[in-house]
């Protein structure tokens, strides 16, 4: 998670036909059983959404004057998702974290899908870099090859990428890197450290097949 911008930059991308539904990922697994590690990929997307929603809810708890979580972003909080759960970084009260994870999961499943999108997500940074690189390469190829024109093209590419990245990054999160966690069950929450030795809480989850109701560790 990086920069802070408004959580919803408008209705620029609003594909009404792609509403999430409870058995979507279970159905996908049944339809494509031959794809290796598909469940892990689907689980990572759901964990990513739960991570974002938990940060929003914790921000709401820390600022009780805010009418809803999408109006305040506690920039001291951050997360890192894995297919087993997510790391939550920052000074967090354990009871508040348990409450936030539970609320985040319930609210996502109840239809508050905007909680799955976060402006400081690394997806936005990746989209911004790819856009800048693509536009800069395109301008370099099509513009006259003199230093002044090339510098002007690079500047315009950077500005265009900066303007386009928030909306495209939001779309990438919504349809590629996150998914509503209909299949997740929270196992436990524990203080730990990540691979780089940074202190964190780890929220461990498992997969539950919506058609069978049987959790899998």
Would you give an account of this structure?
This protein is α+β, with helices and mostly antiparallel strands. The chain folds into two domains: 20-117 and 178-216, no CATH class; 123-167, no CATH class. Helix content is 47%, strand content 15%. It contains five helices and five strands, in the order ααββαααβββ. Strands 1, 2, 3, 4 and 5 form a five-stranded antiparallel sheet that branches. Strand 1 and strand 2 (85-89) form a beta hairpin. Helix 2 packs across helix 3 and helix 4 (122-142) packs antiparallel against helix 5 (147-177). The protein starts with 23 loop residues before the first helix and ends with a strand.
Secondary-structure blueprint:
Layout: H1 24-31, H2 38-62, E1 78-82, E2 85-89, H3 94-109, H4 122-142, H5 147-177, E3 184-193, E4 199-208, E5 215-216
Antiparallel strand pairs: 1-2, 2-4, 3-4, 4-5
Helix pairs in contact: 2-3, 4-5
Low-confidence stretches: 1-16
Number of domains: 2
Order of H and E elements: HHEEHHHEEE
How much of the sequence lies in strands comes to: 5-15%
What structural class results from the helix and strand content?
alpha+beta
Looking at the structure, what is the overall shape?
globular
Quick check: average pLDDT?
85
Helical content class: 40-55%
The major beta sheet can be summarized as: 5 strands, antiparallel
How many H/I helices?
5
- Spatial extent as radius of gyration: 19 Å
- What is the count of β-strands? 5
Distance between the termini: 27 Å
């Amino acid at each position: 998670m990086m920069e802070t911008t408004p959580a919803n930059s408008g209705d620029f991308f609003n594909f009404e036909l792609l509403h999430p539904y409870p058995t979507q990922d279970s159905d996908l697994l049944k339809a494509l059983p031959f794809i290796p590690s598909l469940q892990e990929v689907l689980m990572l997307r759901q964990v990513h959404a739960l991570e974002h929603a938990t940060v929003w809810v914790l921000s709401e708890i820390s600022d009780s004057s805010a009418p809803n979580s999408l109006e305040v972003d506690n920039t001291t909080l951050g997360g890192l998702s894995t297919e087993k759960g997510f790391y939550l970084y920052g000074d967090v009260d354990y009871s508040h974290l348990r409450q936030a994870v539970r609320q985040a999961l319930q609210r996502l499943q109840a239809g508050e899908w905007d909680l799955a999108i976060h402006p400081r997500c690394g997806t936005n940074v990746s989209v911004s870099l790819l856009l800048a690189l693509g536009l800069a390469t395109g301008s370099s190829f099509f513009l006259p090859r003199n230093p002044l024109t090339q510098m002007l093209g690079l500047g315009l590419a950077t500005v265009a990428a900066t303007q386009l990245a928030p909306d495209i990054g939001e779309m990438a999160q919504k349809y590629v890197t996150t998914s509503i966690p209909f299949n997740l069950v929270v196992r436990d929450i524990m203080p730990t450290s990540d691979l780089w030795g940074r202190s964190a809480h780890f929220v461990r989850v498992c997969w539950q097949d919506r058609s069978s109701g049987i959790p899998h560790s």
